Amino acid sequence: MTEVVVVGGYDALAEAYEWLISDAKLAPVEFASSFDDVLGVLPSNAHVLNCSCGTGQLAVGLAGRGMRVVETDASEAMVRRTAELSEKCRASVRTVRANWHELPDHFDDDTFDMVFCVDNSLHHAEGARGRVAALEAMSRLLRRGGRLVLTSRTWELVRPRGTRLDIGDRLVRRNGRNAVVVYRWDIAPNWADEHRTEIVIAQLDAAGSVLARSELLSS
Ligand SMILES: C[S@@+](CC[C@H](N)C(=O)[O-])C[C@H]1O[C@@H](n2cnc3c(N)ncnc32)[C@H](O)[C@@H]1O
């Protein structure tokens, strides 16, 4: 029997987010190490903000290096998961729920040595204006000479493949459960138009039942 749970937004996706991230990113130390080149310029007690924190692996990795870490996200559930992981790992991390444009309401200008907005995050801002507003908010919070670390999906590679279904070719095992992950890409004709990505995480149990969670994301 297949049960299909259709959910919306990162709030709902948070519960199954680990099936979407790589083994390397699941491990806090490894996730933080992937930024060794930029982290090397910081003092050991640097004040860092990660403003789309997801489920908190980077937070724990950064705190483990002795940094003063603040984690924010628009999704309450993501912020909760970051707080839970930090507590479980005994990492000292402050968490705040905030959209990018709300960041200046929570923090003074010139507060952080480094701001992270990594993985596939910034493209969720609404259009060019939304991206500029988000970047302006991040920029205000950086100290003079501070750095913004921004990474993103390579849309130059995603777009040419057009609208399509990408079905994972391996089971992903997390928390003792296997899942198949499926992405449905809805690629708009123009760069500036809304692109949609539906993600399905189909978890299988030992008895053969399938629990499929589906979420629609907008970029
Ligand atoms: C693909 S996840 C990346 C999470 C994390 N950075 C990582 O690398 O695992 C995108 C994140 O951006 C957050 N996000 C989306 N729109 C946002 C907004 N307007 N303001 C702040 N965070 C946002 C989502 O809630 C989600 O946690």
What's the layout of helices and strands?
Blueprint: E1 2-8, H1 9-13, H2 23-26, H3 28-33, H4 36-39, E2 47-50, H5 57-63, E3 68-73, H6 76-88, E4 93-97, H7 103-106, E5 112-117, H8 127-141, E6 142-150, H9 155-158, E7 164-167, E8 172-174, E9 177-186, E10 196-204, E11 210-218
Parallel strand pairs: 1-11, 2-3, 2-5, 3-4, 5-6
Antiparallel strand pairs: 7-9, 8-9, 9-10, 10-11
The structure holds S-adenosylmethionine (SAM).
Describe this structure in words.
With 219 residues, this protein is α/β, with parallel strands linked by helices. It has 2 domains: 2-8 and 159-218; 10-150, Vaccinia Virus protein VP39 (Rossmann fold, 3-Layer(aba) Sandwich). The chain has 9 helices and 11 strands. Strands 1, 7, 8, 9, 10 and 11 form a 6-stranded mixed β-sheet that branches. It is globular and about 50 Å long. The model is unreliable at 1-8 (pLDDT under 50). S-adenosylmethionine binds next to loops.
